[in-house]
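Entry 14. Ran structure prediction on the chain below.
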Amino acid sequence: MPLTHQTLIKTFIEYLTFQKRYSPHTIVSYENDLCGFFDFIELQFGSTKIEEINASFVRSWLAKMKESGMESKSLNRKISSLKSFFKYQLKQGIVVTSPMVTIVSPKVKKRLPQFVDEKDIHTLFSYLEFPDNWEGKTHRLLLQLFYNTGMRQAELVNLTESQIDGSNGNIKVLGKGNKERILPVSKDLMMLIKDYIDSKRINFEQFDRVLLLVNGKGNRLYPKYVYNIVRQYLTSVTTIDKKSPHVLRHSFATHLMNNGADLNAVKELLGHSSLAATQIYTHNTIEKLKDVHKKAHPKA
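Output, structure tokens:
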């Protein structure tokens, strides 16, 4: 890849990091997409100046990935990365026109988010046994936090003790784009959190005094560890395909909607920037109504 392209990518990534304050995961995705694109350009078309790149170059790259079996959702993310990149280059005066103007994103088949049934959630917390040690205490609390608040995995891993407001019964969460939102917490869960914090000071001489959740050595939890724990426990209570922290977030939202929660309220609790992202949970509610109608109505 030419040095000029590397410099442009680096400058753009710094802009996303320090000005837009995107998450590390998003930053890595953008960088990988852009590096992949410019590596392809050099391989297929040789040394090419940024202003010489046009829509046909982009279509060739997208066509190659589609031929390799890449799904529309992933292609759309790469298109989004390039659109943001060239939009930034336009603002900086590096290019006069963007090659992305005529690029159309492929349609993505909408999939309803999978969720755990309420009866299975009840089984998880009422009948499943957790190990009688620090790991078991941590497992129970992280599962409770996911389901009772709908927070994201990154939000839970980085949750600090200072974000817990016991007197007002809520948790302040720092979400995507450093947007803060306040999540109400039940008295039972708040007691569980308080007990966990008190137990840390009894169980460990040295531990991470900032983060709420720690492992058996008193250190921070890693995303892979959290994912594996959630998968382990959900496997015991449900047969759905996906068993991840995000499925518990879906379950939180779906159960709220099924029990009559306002769509705008669910949007705020999830930290969505637009209502469109939250509306997908109404489809699960409609499916539940159809199922109830089919089972209960004599003419169904």
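The chain has two domains: 3-92, 118-296. Will compare against last week's run tomorrow.
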